[in-house]
Amino acid sequence: MKRISILGATGSVGQNTLDLVRRTPERFTVVALTGGHNITQLAADAIEFQAELAVTAHEDLLEDLRAALSHTQIEVAAGATALIEAAARPAQWIMSAIVGVAGLPPSFEALKQGTTLALANKESLVTAGQLLMNTARVNHARIIPVDSEHSAIYQALVGEDTAAVSRVVITASGGAFRDWPIEELQNATLEQASNHPNWDMGQRITIDSASMFNKAMEVIEAREFFGFDPEQIEVLVHPESIVHAMVGFCDGGFMAHVGPPDMRHAIGYALNWPQREVLPVEPLDLAGIGQLNFQTPDPARYPALRLAREVMERRGLSGAVFNAAKERAMDHFIDGRIGFADMAQVIEQVLTQVSADNGLIDAEITLDQVLQVDHLSRNNADRVVKGMNS
Ligand code: NAD
Ligand code: MG
To answer: Rounded to two decimals, what is the model's pTM?
Structure first.
């Protein structure tokens, strides 16, 4: 029996993970499950999977969680420290599927116990890539990427010498507004931005897909996880979302990873690694799909990709600045204070303003510094938005 924990169990990736665990429960012991506001879901999952511990991120919901599990032996806890304790509980496999930088401290803690970390939380690598990779190395922990493009690259590299890699292509669906006239993007509504053409995911990553900020994050994620040079990483718009990534080698050959757009493939690969097991994904019907298309992304439509290049050039804490500005800009878009296209402007301004403080950017990266710069950048984003609205 493999002891597993799922951080962010009530979200889209968390629920897909549990869907796989449910199919072969005899293989797993569920240690800890964590969630946020959805106490009903968290309690139901904790009971179904006989978890040892259930944690909500919100201290004010502790009593609700306690009441929902009062007739069981399941331990309950709440708050940021409890999330870290959940990640520190001995487990052989931990899924990091909290959304946002909130997922970083638990990811970091999980690595300290030398476990296998299935990493969906891309914010961990974007904000603190080097710190995370070093922590994994020092503690003999393994990170298996769960973001579908990075799982694809990981799989394409099995048995290969990374020194022979010449380029990597990450594909992007183009998101909800791929075919919209650029001048109409500013008027896109929250509802329209929350609808992905191909993938069924949490709301925030879906909005990030429409603006291509998700792909910007993934380019940085690929640089941090695999150590590729920024200029080796390319992005192509691929509306069918069938080829998830391609790794090009020095001899001109490519290994492409092809599969249906279903996160259970990448999650299942990480869950079963180093084996492969049968997964509940639709068989690919390539003849039915007929053709696969690839296009260069339009830089005017997707300023996010240019900003990702700037972040990779500066490195240091600029990934933390970028991510915080992005998270905060999205909060303001969701709350109706700024338009869709304004998000990129807020992020660019914060990146320029906070990066001007060189001391901060050049500082040696510690978890505290990442969280400090995250806080500072959020405040900065709030000021930029205030300025836009005054
Ligand atoms: P989601 O919004 O569906 O779920 C997020 C989970 O995190 C929930 O369990 C929620 O309760 C919890 N959470 C939210 N805020 C929290 C906080 N402040 N503290 C602690 N827990 C909190 O998100 P998702 O779509 O499942 O994405 C999770 C992560 O995986 C993100 O980093 C995302 O970028 C990445 N990812 C998701 C997909 C996908 O298919 N959904 C694909 C690739 C990568
Ligand atoms: Mg992805």
So the answer is: 0.97
